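User: Teach me something about this protein's shape.
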Amino acid sequence: MVAKKSLTLAQRYMLVSFLVMLGGMVGIGLWMSQQIETAVTNRTAAVTALYVDSYISPHLQELANSEHKYAVNVDALERLLTDTSLGTQIVSFKVWSPDGVVLYATNPELIGQQFPIEDGLAAAFNGEVVTEVSDLDKPEQALEREQWGTLIETYAPSRDAGSDTIIAVSEFYQTSDGLEAEIRAAQNRSWLVVAAVMIAIYLLLAGIVGRASNTIVSQQNELQENVTQLNELLQQNEVLNGRVRRAAARTTALNERHLRRISADLHDGPAQDLALALLRIESLSEALEDEKPEVSKDFRTIQLATESAMEELRTISAGLRLPEIAPISLTETIRRAVHDFEKKTGCNVTLTLGQLPDQAPLPVKITAYRVLKESLANSFRHAEGNGLAVNVYTTHEREELTVEISDSGPGFDVQATAVYERLGLVGMRERVELLGGQFELHSAVGHGTTIRAILPLSIPEVEDV
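Assistant: First, the predicted structure itself:
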C-alpha cells in the first residue's frame, strides 16, 4: 500500500484557514440572516402599524370618555376592513382596552371577553409597537390557529388626540408569505456578499501563504543541500583527521626509532673512538712522564677533558634511548619513569595513580614517559626536587589520560617569562599536541609549578619501536 504524501506546513495552514473561514462565514451569515429577518419584519410591521393607526384611531377616540370606555363603533371598523385596502393587508384584527377586554375582534365570540395583559400586549400599553412571529398558541388566537400555522402579530397603541394617553391597543395579524419572500431575497443577497468577501480574503491569504511557502521550500532545499555538503565535508574531515592522527602516532614512534638509532650510533661510533683515544693518551702520558713532565702534564689535561666528553656522550646516548616499554602496561611505564628519576637523582616523588587501563597505545606511553622524564628533570633543576608529586588518572567521559607533575619550588611569573621558548617545554608541548592532546603550564611566584598533559587514549596503534 502506497503511503499518502503528508501535507506541507502551508497546505495544512490553508486547510485549517479554510475550515475556520467557512465556520466564520456560516456564523456571520446566520447572524446577518437573523438581523435581516428581524429588521424586515419590524419595518413592515411598523409601516403597517402606522397605516392601521391612521385608519383605526379616529374611530376609537370615544374610548377616552369614561362613560363610553367599552363603546366601539363596530360597524365603522367592519367597513374599514371590508371597504378599504386595509382588509387586503390584515387577516385578523382585535382592539383591546387597558384592562384586557376585547372591544372588537374579527371573531365576534371574543368581543367582551377579558384576558390577561402580558408580553406584547403589555408592552404596547406602555407605548411600544411590538411585532413578532406568533405560533398562535394563546386562547384568544383559536380562530387564527385553525387557518394558519404562523402569522406576523403586531400590537400598536392608539392614543387620545387631546392628552396623548393610550386608550386602546390594536392587534392585527398578517400572513408571512410575501414577507418571507422579501426576507429570503435579502438573506440570499447577504449570503452572496459574505461568501464573496470570504472567498476574496481566502484567495488573497492563499496567495500570500503560497508565495511564503515557496520561499520556505526553496530555502529548505538550499539548506538541505548545504547540510548534505557539510556532512560530506565532515566525513572527509573525519577521514583526514584519522589519517593525521595515524601519521602523528607513526611520527612519535619513528622519532623514538631515530633517537634509538642515534643513541646506538653515538655509542658505537664516537664513544668507541673516544675510548681508543683515551687509551693512547694515557700511554703517551705515562711514556713522557719521566723525560718531559710538562708535556706529560698537558696530556693528562687532555685525558681528563676527553674522559668528561666521553661521560657526557654516554649520558646523551642513554637519554636518547627509551627502555623497552612496548610490552609493559601503562601503569608500569609510569612507575618506571618515576623510579628511574628517583634512582638517578636520589629525590623522593609522591606518585598517585588513578584507575588506569591495562593497555594504552604505544605513542601515548612514549609521550607520557617523555613528559614525565623532562618535567621531573626541570623540577630537579629549578626547584631542587622539593615537593615533587606525580598524579596520573583518566576521565571516563572523554577517555583521556591526564599526567600532572608538580613541585613546591619558587615558581615564576608565566606571563613575564618566555618559558615556552625553552627547548624542553617546547618539545613536551609539541609531543602532546602531535597526538591531539593538551599541554598546560601553571606557575606563580612562591607557589611552585604544575605541568599537565592531557592525552587521548583512542588513537591508532603502531608497530613496536
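Now, about its shape. The chain has a mean pLDDT of 78. The longest helix spans residues 177-268. If you'd like, I can walk through any region in more detail.
User: That's plenty for now, thanks!
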